[in-house]
Amino acid sequence: MRFVRYAGCILFILIMFTGCKEKETLPEDVFDRYIGLWQQGQYEAMYELVSGTAKETASVETFAARYRSIYEGIGMSNLSVTALPQAGEPANDDGLSEKTFAYQLKMDTSAGPIDVEGAMRVARDQETGEWKVDWKPSLLFPSMEEGDKVTVRTLQSRRGEIYDRSGNGLAVNGSIEVIGIVPGELGEAGEKTIAELARRLEVPESFIREKLAASWVKDNVFVPIVNATGDRAGLDLSDLQGVTKRDKSARIYPYGEAAVHLTGYIRQVTAEDMEKHKDKNLETDDVIGKAGLEQMYDDRLRGKDGVQISIVAADGMVRETLAKVEPVNGEDIRLTIDADLQESMYHSLDGDAGTGAAIHPRTGEILALVSNPAYDPNLFIQGLSEEQWTSWNEDPKKPLLNRFTKLYAPGSVFKPITASIGLQLGVSSVDEVKTIEGLRWAKDGSWGSYYVKRVRDVPVEDLTDAIVNSDNIYLAQEALEMGADDFTREAEKFGFGRALPIDYPFPKASLSNDGITNEILLADSSYGQGEVQMSPLHLALSYTPFINDGELIAPVLELKEERGVKEGKELKGEAQGERVLAPDTAEAIHRMLLRVVDDPKGTGHGAYIPGRKIAGKTGTAELKRTKAESGQENGWFVVYDAEGFDFLMAVMIEDVRERGGSSYVVRKTAPVVKGYVENRN
Question: CA-based Rg of the chain, rounded to a whole angstrom?
Answer without folding.
Answer: 40
